[in-house]
Amino acid sequence: MAVKSEPTRILILGGGYVGLYTALGLQKKLRANEASVTVVDPQPHMTYQPFLPEAAAGSIEPRHVVVPLRRVLRRCHILTARVTSIEHNRKAVTVEAADGHVEQLNYDVLVVALGSVARLLPIPGLAEHGIAFKTIGEAIYLRNHVLTKLDEAASTLDPELRKRLLTFTVVGGGFAGIEALAELEDMTRDACRYYENIEPEDIRWVLVEAAGRILPEVRETLGVWTAEQLEKRGIEVYLSTAAKSFENGHVVLSDGTEFDSDTIIWTAGVKANPVLANSDLPTDKRGRLQATAALQVVGHPDVWTAGDVAAVPDLSRTENDPTATCPPNAQHAVRQARHLANNIIRALRGGTPKDYYHKNLGAVAGLGLHKGVADAMNLKIKGFPAWLFHRAYHVKAMPTFNRKVRILLGWTLGGLFKRETVSLGQINNPKEEFARASRS
């Protein structure tokens, strides 16, 4: 009598775009007892990062831009843990669980979807004073931080301190930096209505970009137009300028400009998750996994990868540039994940994986309420139409019907009653009052 084999063990490292969409595809298409799927991530949710700027500015409820993994992946095992090393020669992954204990996970099929982390440069003061902008926690912190600075500025009698408190610096002119800058500037301008001693012109927003242009994802003319629009709003834009120091909140730029700023937002690029340095899988010079067009790690057909952590050949461009790889954006990550899930199913059932091919449809960015820019389908779109396009595209891409509806309702209520511009700064130090009471 034949003995039924054990289900194939599929281990997915990372619960972001790639991890979530791959797991969704697998749980939908796997047959009963065909395979088990385990998803490992330090957070119990997936964050839809394109909505972080609106969450930081109060246009969207922060809880609505995250997708609870346990709620949507009901046929998968969810482990809240941080990956520390990958040993593929033993088919083992070491993780540190949420309670601090370390354990080893074994697998038959591995999906590496660890994404990226902020790329920090050796700039004095950056680690101490910089605020990254990749997680929902950072978005919530930044919103409360910025509004708290307005409260402090409205209370101080020191003009120099007031100037420092009302100076906000953003480093990085890519999509993350420009959208965060535009949304938060909009929020502070709106908040001024409730401060009798703060006017919009008292608030200083500064953008620092080392390259000669912003928004490299769109054509140059749109990047120039965007910079002009930001300057019309009173935002200072420094191009071809590098940050040299942030020590003690004193900003020093490469062109000699110096000023004090209590808020330094760092969005100057990302890098592949450094966990790959503790693995025996092949990486390229940028630290990304070397991948085939079928989304398999080179030389390891039972290891799959996609998204920011992977150097996936961009077949839409390799004819002109054999080294072209897919850019690290949500558009490719979501499509790669769906393709990856189908390829794993094909491989499990003896089929041949298919190559991933997707021509970039373009890019779209929000520049605050009712303002945007888009370069899509060979069209240049500016202003209100681009803002509508931005919202329509991202609500369509947002996972789960539940979250789509909540976001739409939030936008509707915000349009009717205006967004809330109150700081919940106590969240950043919730035990302060308790400690103060214990000393009295």
TrEMBL record:
GO terms for molecular function: NADH dehydrogenase activity. InterPro entries: FAD/NAD-bd_sf, FAD/NAD-binding_dom, NDH-2. It comes from the Bacteria. The keyword Oxidoreductase applies. The keyword Ribosomal protein does not apply. Keywords: FAD, Flavoprotein, NAD, Oxidoreductase. Residues 9-337 form the FAD/NAD(P)-binding domain. Belongs to the NADH dehydrogenase family. This is NADH dehydrogenase, FAD-containing subunit. It comes from Saccharomonospora xinjiangensis XJ-54.
